[in-house]
């Protein structure tokens, strides 16, 4: 009976992945085992930094394997300096026509961390072409926290902010807050947001760490609780999906046990929650999203599908004492812990969440009864 229920849950998770895409960056090596292990944790999207203009064989293999395993590809568009060529738009269009009907194509990944007005103008041209050729295929754009990231608002359908806080700091000292803070700021662009969260250790980027005067060997991977914080500190901002960077870094560091025991289960918890709330009405219960500075705690609710869910998140590295005031009423009743949420005897009454405390970076997910 348990195996039958698991199969039903697996197919439900797979069916909704298009509505709330969850994916991993750099799915390498490109082989069945990589697809199988990511599917195990509800990951429906895969990405790799391939060059479709000079490496079509590798791209074709990626697309074929993703289709074989029922996954979608976040397809790299502008790679290998193609935008520096005078006929870049024609080359882009030719490539799009080659792959636009492929069953594994999920979204176009326009560019990785652009900056500068010249780049913006080129990316706008490519975006307009994509909307002409493939109006129903979403276009995503990765944004670094540069001074000018907001100038790329009109270059994509989805904005994908990425920032990776965990280096060698012990828990809870890593500045996790900068991850939802960047997402908070990007929401002001009034575009749907799909963040990119950290599942890598900077030990695999030794030169970068040496420049920062950090011993690469001292760096670590995010814990389950830290990934859970990434997930739900942005879910309360009504994000539209989540990606993680990167599978290949874990593989080349020979730390696949970390993926199976820590990162994967945290990703699966998000997949299961996204399935529960699919189609439910979202309400920001605290500070309106994107207004002012990121507050010390955020809360949101999802009502529908015959139930209700509430999430409360501590955005600080220190303990916050309860109770927690809301700006919007959240109903009345007992709060039932969901997922990895501790049982704190919490309840809600109008604009107050009754709870003893929030631990540093703590996430509370409840069903409302």
Task: Give an overview in words.
An eight-stranded parallel beta sheet has the order 6-5-4-3-2-1-8-7. Strands 9-10-11-18-14-15-16-13 form an eight-stranded antiparallel beta sheet. It is built from ten helices and 18 strands. 33% of the residues lie in helices and 21% in strands. It is of the alpha/beta class. It is globular, with a radius of gyration of 21 Å.
Which key terms come to mind for this protein?
369 residues, alpha/beta, 8-stranded parallel beta sheet, 10 helices, 18 strands, 33% helix
SS elements, strand count = 18
Rg, Å, rounded: 21 Å
Distance between the termini: 27 Å
Helix percent reads: 25-40%
Number of helical stretches of at least 4 residues? 10
In terms of DSSP E residues, the strand content is 15-25%
Main β-sheet description: 8 strands, parallel
Question: Uncertain segments of ≥5 residues (pLDDT<50)?
Answer: 1-18
Instruction: Report mean pLDDT, rounded to a whole number.
Output: 94
Task: Please identify the structural class as seen in this structure.
Answer: alpha/beta
* Lateral strand order in the biggest sheet: 6-5-4-3-2-1-8-7
List SSEs in N-to-C order.
Answer: HEHEHEHEHEEHEHHEHHEEEEEEEEEE
Task: Give the overall shape.
Answer: globular
Present the secondary structure layout:
Blueprint: H1 2-16, E1 22-24, H2 32-40, E2 45-46, H3 56-68, E3 72-76, H4 88-99, E4 105-112, H5 117-133, E5 139-143, E6 158-161, H6 178-186, E7 196-198, H7 206-211, H8 224-235, E8 242-245, H9 247-252, H10 256-277, E9 281-284, E10 297-304, E11 307-314, E12 320-321, E13 324-325, E14 332-337, E15 347-349, E16 352-354, E17 357-358, E18 363-368
Parallel strand pairs: 1-2, 1-8, 2-3, 3-4, 4-5, 5-6, 7-8
Antiparallel strand pairs: 9-10, 10-11, 11-18, 12-17, 13-16, 14-15, 14-18, 15-16
